[in-house]
Amino acid sequence: MSSLIAKQSANLDTSKQVADEIDECEATDIDEEGKSDNKEDKECMHNVPEQDREEMEEIISTFDGLENQYNLVEKIGEGTFSSVYKAEDLKYYDYINDWDIDSKARTKQPESETSNDRTEIGTMKREAKYVAIKKIYATSSPMRILNELEILYLLRGMDTIAPLITALRNEDQVLLVLPYYQHTDFRQFYSTFSYKDISVYFRCLFEALAACESLQIMHRDIKPSNFLFNVERKHGVLVDFGLAERCSRPLPNSCPCASRDSAEVARESYKDYEPALGYVKNDTRPSKRANRAGTRGFRAPEVLLKCPAQNTIIDVWSAGVILLSFLTKRFPMFNSKDDVDALMEIACIFGKNEMRQVAALHGCTFETNVNTLTEKRVNFRKLILWASCGSASIYKEKLMHKPSFEESLCLDFLERCLELDCNKRITACEAMAHDFMYLDDPTHQFSFQRETSFEKPETDSPMENDSTEMTQHFSRILKDEENEPSTQDMSVLKRKRPSVDNT
Ligand SMILES: Nc1ncnc2c1ncn2[C@@H]1O[C@H](COP(=O)(O)OP(=O)(O)OP(=O)(O)O)[C@@H](O)[C@H]1O
């Protein structure tokens, strides 16, 4: 076994470190070998499914000496490219652990307490410390693994990005060791968060995105399960840079969106376009190729339209989709099975007109014979109220009220994140200056001006055109929920699509 990245050596005042880590509540004995006597872990191991236990035993047997460093406790995640295990770090106290933000937060305690603790070092009970071990499947290419390692290295030192502690390799097996973050499953809080809570969530997320943006790194897989949010600590950490990529300077003619002039022409050109029905049988045009990596439902329009000039702004769109889930109280928001479906879901909200425009921006055409799509976009406030109110009468009542300051601010931020045109979308750094990020900060001076005039909207029909399939679909959801709240299908836009000949 070889260590790809050496742990920082332990030549510091270890005693101070140890003293700083004391937490009486979670105290755990550690014997001379360094193994903890954590009863919870032992009980946990009994509950570990047979298959997971076998996997963990295999990892231990593959990596010589691993068992002296880490005690694998349970499997905590399984993705397309890796499995993730929670493990106790048996050598924690031998190393400088700058990555440990929990302990850092705790060391901010009064001097008198820490000096008292220091005197008890020899005899004290040490708290068990955990890491997350990510086992990358051997099918991943070495270049992909190296890319993840390099990007994690570049992004080190951020409180909102999970840093790499170390990495281990044995032949084709690679383990990444990351801090373990106690977090809350998104499904447990997304429908109950207040605007202030949502603001805190997004400030952490955008802090991480702004750091990526300043280094021109696209994460490519922004979604709730990759942003580990701890509700109690009100802190989140971005993980999983397995698909991350460094932006390359786009060639000006690689896509109309890549240069200001051609983007302007493209934005206008779609108006004159006359769609030709059918498709070219012997199409000799070169196929359009671009990185489309990501998770369905979170891909930005430019990714779906195979834009070769993608940049960090794709992650802002994905963050916008998460925000839409918070506000509509629907997760997942989109549930497409392929890219065409995904574009249709987006078109349900933005309407055909804007879809044609964004397609032209990336050198494509958008045409569909799905006659239930509207030309114009759906108003975000109406969509959110409709999806989140639970009953048509509450929806109507809320719609009649002027949005609160918090709601207006949040809607403004949502619109800026979910901007179809990637050149007009808010950047992560700009987002950090948006007032929405500071809703919970009593010292923040707000400059956001909400519209003073408020026209009571027509409430007979929730959307512009009540005859569309989408409106009927939304209405059905509302009706169902009025009678009996449905927990079966939380995805607003999940619906059967009529057969499409030409999209
Ligand atoms: N540092 C960590 N602390 C706690 N849990 C973690 C940590 N890293 C990952 N996890 C858990 O493991 C899951 C999978 O991790 P990760 O996203 O890195 O793997 P993946 O194979 O790329 O998954 P996917 O294909 O779903 O994106 C996460 O959703 C999370 O629940």
From TrEMBL:
Organism: Schizosaccharomyces cryophilus (strain OY26 / ATCC MYA-4695 / CBS 11777 / NBRC 106824 / NRRL Y48691) (Fission yeast)
Gene Ontology terms describing biological process: DNA replication initiation; double-strand break repair via break-induced replication; G1/S transition of mitotic cell cycle; mitotic DNA replication checkpoint signaling; mitotic DNA replication preinitiation complex assembly; mitotic intra-S DNA damage checkpoint signaling; negative regulation of exit from mitosis; positive regulation of DNA repair
Start-end of Acidic residues biased regions: 20-32
Top-level taxon of origin: Eukaryota
UniProt-recorded Gene Ontology molecular function terms: ATP binding; identical protein binding; protein serine/threonine kinase activity
Protein name listed in UniProt: non-specific serine/threonine protein kinase
Keywords assigned by UniProt, alphabetized: ATP-binding, Kinase, Nucleotide-binding, Serine/threonine-protein kinase, Transferase
Family annotation (PANTHER family): CASEIN KINASE II SUBUNIT ALPHA (PTHR24054)
Biological classification of the source: Eukaryota, Fungi, Dikarya, Ascomycota, Taphrinomycotina
